[in-house]
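hey m, so remember when u said the tokens were messed up on ur end? i reran from scratch. heres the input so u can diff it against urs
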Amino acid sequence: MSQGGPIARRDDGPGADQTGRGDATAATETRHPVRWARSVEAALLSRPGVALACVLLVALLGLNALAFHRATQALLAQERGVTRAQDALIAIAAAMGDLTAAESAQRGYILYGDPADLRGYDAAARAVGPRLAHLRGVASDTPDQARRAAALVPLADAKLADLAQAIALRRTGQGAQARDMVVRDRDARATAALQGLFDALARAALAQLRRRDTRAQATAATTTVALVLATAVDAALLVGALLAIRRAFARRARVAAERGRLLAEARRARAAAEAAVKTRNDFLTVAAHDLRTPLTNMLGRSYVLGARLRGGQAPDPAWLIAQTASLEASTRRLIATVNELNDMIALERGEELALSPESVELGALARAVADEMATGIGAQGLGAVPIALDTSAGPVVVAADRGRLARVLQNVLGNAVKYSVRGTPVRVVVQRAGARAVVTVRDEGVGIPADELPRIFERFYRASTARGITGSGIGLAGAKATVEQHGGAIAVESAVGAGTTVTITLPVPAADDDGDAGAARARPR
């Protein structure tokens, strides 16, 4: 207590001791509040103090919330009362307006015979009933108003009946009598009674609105006071609340970002689904065309052949052979289309294709497919796009399903011919590269854009350069599934305007040296 400062200095004067003791006493008294504050702070920061503070905080928050809830509920109740009184005034005005409009339109029709007035009368008269029903509903919370609203109904019905009677007279040609009813205002007493009830309702509703508005203002003032008190009590918790709010906003921002991402994904998925539906519809249109074309040819040639036979004409053998060949070609084309559809359905279900493996010499199979296409089966306009087949590397035997592998070659060769430029050849090379058989089909056609190549094997997808050329978009997808199920691979290289190269690789069985392809090595699924 005596270290440092002027309190520790001694004075040689006669009052030095007394002065020093007085200064020390003042310093000690000054430090007592500081020590007390620190003691309180330590007590509050202790575990029991924190627990007690939490209990008090929860209690205060509960009391504030209860008081504010009650004040808010009272305010909402008053606001609902004000709104109901306003609705009552509006309903009264609307019902009066409909009755007045009906009466005005009735007078106009009877006096001038304008059909527009009659339509106006019908509309206003139909609206009166619902208006009065609504008025009775909003006035039901006050007995006097409810009684007045109920008394309006028979008076309004009587008024509408008188109006309708005059209109009926006018319609039946008794215009003079109808005009007399209007001029004499036979229902003036009923109109006065209605007007009196409406006025009484309006005055009562207005008085009720003023009372409720006054109570609502008083309740709002009370609620404001309660809110100010609650805000003052909760101000001590501002720091913690701000931290909680910051964390909540950060979490909300993350949720909003995630929601935005999910929404974007949903939009992309919807766009993809819509595109898929459009693609499938386009495919069905093309498939229907591909089915209808051979059927039409079969029907036409069958009709011509039947006509000749019914006419007793002996058909020329060469002509008959040509007709049956055309029928066979159409039948094969129809079967191929149906088989493609069946494969597409199986692939859509996630199923694998059924295989019947056997030894297949790829060169001979490619030759058969090319010859079949050259005779017009499965291709159109092939004469302008010749197929050059190179099997000089010798026989290449694989274990495969002959029919499905032939369909793969038909699809690939058909595309090459279909998208080629007239006069340019399609080159097909069959060779062996180690333990793999390789079939390369190269054309000089329109080509495929580089950014579309990754999607070329998707079902129903067609490149942008294929517009205007018929096709279903399932051929390459089925070809890829078939080749991969045989343990092979199919790849496409292309450039717009420079043509396309399709490379098919298949495994060659180890027992191929003696010509036996080892059909058991294929993977039927």
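this time it looks ok to me. Confidence is low (pLDDT under 50) at residues 1-16, 377-382, 513-525. if urs says something different then somethings off w ur setup not the seq
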